Amino acid sequence: MRKLMMTTAVATLIATGCISAFSQEVKEVEMLHWWTSGGEAAALNVLKTDLANEGFGWKDVPVAGGGGDAAMTALKAMVAAGTYPTASQMLGYSVLDYAAAGVMGDLTETAIKEGWDKSVPLALQQFSVYDGKWVAAPVNIHSVNWLWISKPVMEKIGGTEPKTFDDLIALLDKAKAAGVVPLALGGQDWQEATMFDSVVLSTGGPEFYKKAFNDLDEESLGSDTMNQSFDNLAKLISYVDPNFAGRDWNLATAMVIKDEALVQVMGDWAKGEFSAAKEAPDTDFLCYRFPGTDGSVIYNSDMFGMFNVPEDRKAAQIALATATLSPSFQSAFNVVKGSVPARTDVPDTDFDACGKKGMADLKAANDGGTLFGSLAQGYGAPPAIANAYKDVVTKFVHGQIKTSEEAVTELVKAINDAR
Ligand code: BGC
Question: What is the mean pLDDT of residues 331-355?
Answer without folding.
Answer: 98
